[in-house]
Amino acid sequence: MAIRKSGDWLCARVGDEVMMMSASQGSYIGLDTTGARIWDLLDTLADEDAICAQLLEEFEVGEVQCRTEVGAFLDELERHKAITRDAVQAG
Amino acid sequence: MFHYILSGLRVASDLAMPGLIDADPGPAPPDVRICAGDVPLTLEGATHTGANWQMAADRILLRVPGIVRMLIDGGHAITWQCEESTTPADAAIFVFGSGFGLLIHLQQRCIMHASAIAVGGRAVLFCGPSGAGKSTLAAALGARGYGHIADDQCVLSGIEGGEVLVHPDGRAHKLWEQAIAKLDLAERSGPPIRTALRKFFVQPTSGSHAALPLAAIYILGEARTPELVRGERVAISALNLADAAIAVRLNAYRPAMVERLGQAGLYLQAAAGVMRAGGVFRLVRPMAFDAMDETIAALAAHWEEIGLAEGVA
Amino acid sequence: MKPIVWLASFPKSGNTWLRLLLANLAATGEPCGINAIGTARALASSRQWFDEASLIASGLLTAEESDRMRPALYRHIAAGAADPTENDEAGPDRGDDPLRAWRLVKTHDAWTRTTTGEPLLGGRAAARAAMLIVRDPRDVVASLANHNNSSLDEAAALMGDPRSALASRADRQPLQLRQQLLGWSGFHASWLDQSDVPVHLVRYEDLQADAPAALGALLTALGAPADPARLARAAELSAFERLQAQEAESGFREGPVRMATGRFFRSGRSGGWREELSVELRAKIEADHSPMMRRFGYLDDEA
Lengths: 91, 313, 303
What we know:
A: alpha+beta; 3-stranded antiparallel beta sheet; two-stranded antiparallel ribbon; 27% strand; C: 12 helices
């Protein structure tokens, strides 16, 4: 699935974390260190597998846990309409 | 002309305002000019209107019926005209309060509806709507030796990533007669803010005339039946990133102006700056004078906990 | 354009209960909580709303000066001039609300005029109608004493004082704008005898006896559909037992901080005064208010 950022989200950094706002949604989200890193990775990576691979290199985390948490985080972003996931196979 | 430093700006005014920080005129032109003049009743090309105000591009026409009306122009000038039999002295607080606060909004700078005191050389802000007890809490802390910074408006600068600074809004508290009596401040009490009001300028024990780095923001709430049922009298809790961003925006000097002037991004940046500097907290306490000692003790303990040096600025 | 419908009452006459009933008209499953109905915009005397709408700090105005500004502010919100920051207080889940065409705004203000001669509440240009909730003053007095943590005699004195007002202390900034009550009789006379806004009378006792019927009459007066099943459900969701259970659990945000018995919803019954009032106090209230009590049918069955 190809993941793309969507909406009019503005971001502001607080250390390793990120504060986000969408004027059109009228909503605010806070991202912790890992969430903020995934949000950054979404600028260059559009694929859940690639994001997990990158995180496994950067963080001390098991693969199963990493996949579960990335999946849940992306679901949350999708629920806030901060990303879209197309059913098209990437690559 | 009178010359003041207000919220970090050099102001030249033909309208005197007690309780402000006096400044030397200096050779450079002032940042803001406040002058008497003819003020129209309507503003051409208004894009937003209220019952008593109109906004067009970077100008706001604001009317306090029967008292004063003013034109706030481009973030650098306010023209004022008294209505009916109101004297300039009785109108000044509206020009320097609402008028100046809206001018800061028009300048696209961040202004919080807050009082502020100095703790260990840094600024602690108390936010909340009118009547939340901002001035009273700041004055009670002032009476215990914490330096006065602001009574009603706090302009934040340096939010783009540098050190966030809080600019003083004057050198006096503005307190109601009841608060003056309960806080035992009668000896420091000065003239009334308006002739018909039992609200007075009160001289603080000490204060800062310079901007200080921000330490923390507290959003004031009242412990009411739900909290009291749970047995919580004074409670301080940290807001998470999203709640802090919302709180900063909702406690702008005039929150609806943030939307009207497209400043949501600016206040998001400000909230991030505040979180980097120390954080946003919710302070819930009973709104009774007999709970003031308890509230201040809880704050002092919290300042120690978040690493703010104990003591007087 | 979204005109105001005033929900007007003397304090402790069932205003909160009526607002809850009205809110529950649109509830689909869970009852509307007592802390969810009172937003700042839904209260005529809200200082926060005044300051935000006028861009002026009402705390710098005398009561007469802020009163002078209030009519235009109410007319402005009723006209619904485009303001992107004003969210519909009903919220997104209330598309099915039979009252969605109106702004329901609570007020304890008597119908008075400002120093410039305008109706304080903005007259006909601000409001389509008013629902006046009235309750037997012999029941109000005990509830008021409990609310104010005062004696019954003090509460009766306030009700008999034509200059009585809420939030009127000038040595501090009360949380709300000043509200002139004019005493219990004066309050009701002011609303019933004005001709600017049509008044629909809702007797607390009728609401108590048959809430769906009283609610239905109110909706009909507004020209809104009154579906019997919906009325019955709203009444059921708002029953007093539920309110008291909710309050014991979470407390009621609009209640005063200290109360003699610790409850805002003190007693939902009508005619409770028979157990609580002394003969002298009952006589005083009847002497102070008999013409108005007769007007509402509160004295007819007592002879």
